[in-house]
Design a protein that fits this description.
This protein is mostly helical. It has seven helices and no strands. It has one domain. Helices cover 67% and strands 0% of the residues. Helix 1 packs antiparallel against helix 2, helix 2 packs antiparallel against helix 3 and helix 5 packs antiparallel against helix 6.
């Protein structure tokens, strides 16, 4: 199986999880697999990386975000507002969270994190 075929397989699995109405926490693994198998520079991969960040932040059972920082596409999204919020959850505290939310007031609603 080629790398592109593998990536498409993960994408299909991730899409199936969404269509089946799986809880957000269950959707993270297939999405992360898709992101890790795609070229980090592709627009699709960058968009999927933002989705992975939002899924991780939404999941009430996920508290360890380090693995996301090993995904090239997630790291390449460093200028995105969702990435800055992820960094707050990784290594900051409540004051930084409030500051980040003041800088990006619509982010919670935009990614259904409220």
């Amino acid at each position: 199986m080629s790398g592109e075929e593998r990536s498409q397989l993960f994408k299909s699995i991730a899409d199936a999880f969404i269509q089946c109405g799986q809880p957000y926490g269950n959707r993270l693994s297939p999405h992360a697999s898709y992101v890790s198998s795609s070229p980090s520079s592709s627009p699709e991969s960058q968009s999927a990386a933002i989705d992975v960040i939002a899924l991780a932040l939404y999941s009430p059972t996920l508290f360890y975000f380090d693995p996301l920082f090993k995904l090239d596409a997630v790291v390449s999204a460093k200028d995105h507002e969702a990435f800055s919020l992820l960094q707050v959850f990784l290594s900051s505290g409540l004051p930084e969270l409030h500051s980040s939310l003041e800088s990006h007031p619509a982010i919670l609603e935009k990614y259904e994190l409220d």
